[in-house]
Predict the structure of C4-dicarboxylate ABC transporter.
Amino acid sequence: MAFLVDNLAPIMFAGLIVFLLIGFPVAFSLGACGLFFAFIGIELGVLPAALVQALPLRIYGIMQNDTLLAIPFFTFMGLILERSGMAEDLLDTIGQLFGPIRGGLAFAVILVGAMLAATTGVVAASVISMGLISLPIMLRYGYDRRIASGTIAASGTLAQIIPPSLVLIILADQLGRSVGDMYKGAFLPGFLLTGMYALFVVVIAIVRPAWVPALPPEARTIREDDGKSGLLSLLLLTVLSVGLAIAFGQHYTEIVGWWKGEVQARPVATDETIVVSMSLGVLLAFVIALLNKLTGLRLLSRMAERVTFVLIPPLLLIFLVLGTIFLGIATPTEGGAMGAAGALVMAWVRRRLNFQLLVQALTSTTKLASFVVFILIGATLFGLTFQGVDGPKWVEHLLTQLPGGTLGFLIAVNLLIFLLAFFLDFFELSFIVVPLLAPVAAKLGIDLVWFGVLLAVNMQTSFMHPPFGFALFYLRSVAPADDYVDRVTRKPIPKVTIQQIYWGAVPFVLIQLVMVVLIIAFPAIVSSGLDKAEQIDLDKVNIEMPTNTDGGYGEPSMEGLEDSGAAPASAPEGAPEPQSPPAVEEDPMKASQEAVEAEKKP
């Protein structure tokens, strides 16, 4: 019995693992394990019976959490966009743009995957859309099945790390940090990962060109009347837009100062400068393309006009959601609401919005939101009991005693997340494991925003590696399971096997792990996206008690740091002579209290 009392926390954690391995639903596994061990703890005298009375307050706190409202908003936005045909237009246009080069279709899938991630934030929507649209085309023109399936699955998982990611919302909630800060921190790692995917395709195009062939001339349908591609016009439009954005960004501080009437312009946040400058460049391209279409001047080629009109709507939606969040205009929840409204407008403009579409999107959103809330309730019940049996102390002692200090902790944690991701998805990892790791990371002095982004990149692997990689299952559901005859070329196309999908995912899982190593080795990849506020060491703050002319004491004033150079105020006439400062630094509040008591003495 003594052994059970002393080791109730590890036994409770092991019991949860047993529940999960049996295959019991995660939400109910967490709740059942929490209630079962709460009863045992109360019977053994380890837990007070009043502890369970805190559970209704915890659940009510979940209902009051405004941050979690962003999850259904972004889910609804992604589902509306996925069914409105935006992904189809993007893949068709970008595929035509990159088609003449080897690996062009793979580049198009990666680029569109990043854009869908920045607009939808839902992995399932991205993978299924690109699997339905791009995979048949890639198979039609001779792409290796492993490369094609791996590229589609990996590009879909970019929705895990590129804002507005659902996992970043949940991690921010579990870590007690701002969703906006988490989005800013993940911005650069997300697009670096996109670049690493593209670099892998470049290597394949050089080493194995037959695996990623270019589109044949007859498949390139967007051409001028004289047969030219029209890429020069698109290049000139891009250079003009980017040049204006860069020039505006370089002088944005002066422009803001002039607008506000400030004599000396104050520095503007970097993320605000980037968002506003990019928006201006995009707006310029859209205005030029719109004037070209309305006036019929034919200043732009068909390719330039098509690319502009296809790319601008999702880019504007990205600004509507992420731009307003980064600029501080809207909270993530408000940004999600505006994104959902923007998605409805885009679907209406495309004439895809109907009652059936709304019902499907709302049904799927309700299911996902209910799934998240039930897991969160179960995790809350489990966490309440686990804290009552001193589980966090057990985890802290277990992890802080690892060799290697902070680096050893980070290596052990990432190995643990990677191994658990074989069996758990990111929701379960976020609600079960992250609350146990966050206090230890904070005690070791690790920035929790950086820690959250690191875990989010690692959790991407839960979608990619067998046997339970959800992205692989999503792709399997839309990939051809039998041999078929292509409707365009009339050639027989072999089926895609689950083994080919698994092997295609392996190199991209390795790329994700390389990204984890890069974030640990170069922390500025995450922290460079955050505006660091000026830090003040409270231990070095002087608090002085100036005297009034009547011998009383006024309000205490807080000076700056010790080395600020501020001279103490001279005492008025009749006031006692100030004591010379002691050799040893004293508590400022204690010194002020002693001065008041000395003044009261006759």
